[in-house]
Design a protein that fits this description.
about 170 residues; alpha+beta; PH-domain like; 3-stranded antiparallel sheet; 7 strands; about 45% helix; PH domain-containing protein; transmembrane; YdbS-like_PH
């Protein structure tokens, strides 16, 4: 999650989240299948050839396990979304970290989308458009999407409220 040292003065964290755990279902099933195949393979090959074929097969399966299960888990673990009272921050990356920061004052549209499965799991995609030349930011598989949408909308409106009052006075 976001380190406190990255916060600006008078900035407070409102919501911190990562994508919904549903993204880990396929890697879990891949890991389970690899373990079942590994067990069958080790038993079927046995000690033939001095154990070298079994060792070589298990090494290949271990690499596949790391690539198909551990890597997606680490990606999920290190990909976070933080909403503060001043910014929306996306951070991702296992070894090399990258991210995108959108000040709430630049956000001009907040929308969300939910499919059938998303409705059951109470997650969805949040779409943020800001006053920049970059395409909108799509935050996929956000848990409790309605709550996150309400919070960011409230904060954006609060951020834009001083500008609205200045426009009314002019």
């Amino acid at each position: 999650m976001l380190s406190e040292k990255l916060l600006l003065d008078d900035e407070a964290i409102e919501v911190q989240t990562r994508t919904h755990v549903k993204v880990l279902i396929v890697p879990f099933l891949v890991g389970l299948a690899i373990m079942l195949i590994g067990g069958y393979f080790a038993g079927a090959v046995g000690d033939s050839g001095g154990g070298t074929p079994r060792l070589l097969g298990l090494v290949v399966l271990a690499v596949l396990f790391l690539w198909g299960t551990l890597l997606p888990f680490l990606r999920w673990l290190t990909w976070t979304y933080t909403l503060t009272n001043r910014r929306l921050i996306e951070q991702k990356g296992i070894v090399t970290r990258s991210g995108r920061i959108i000040p709430l004052a630049r956000i001009n549209d907040v929308a969300y989308e939910k499919g059938v499965i998303d409705r059951v799991l109470r997650c969805g995609t949040l779409i943020i458009h800001d006053a920049s030349h970059q395409s909108g930011m799509h935050l996929r598989d956000i848990p409790r999407i309605e709550e996150f949408h309400r919070t960011i909308t409230r904060l954006v409106l609060e951020t834009h409220a001083p500008e609205a009052r200045r426009d009314e006075q002019a």
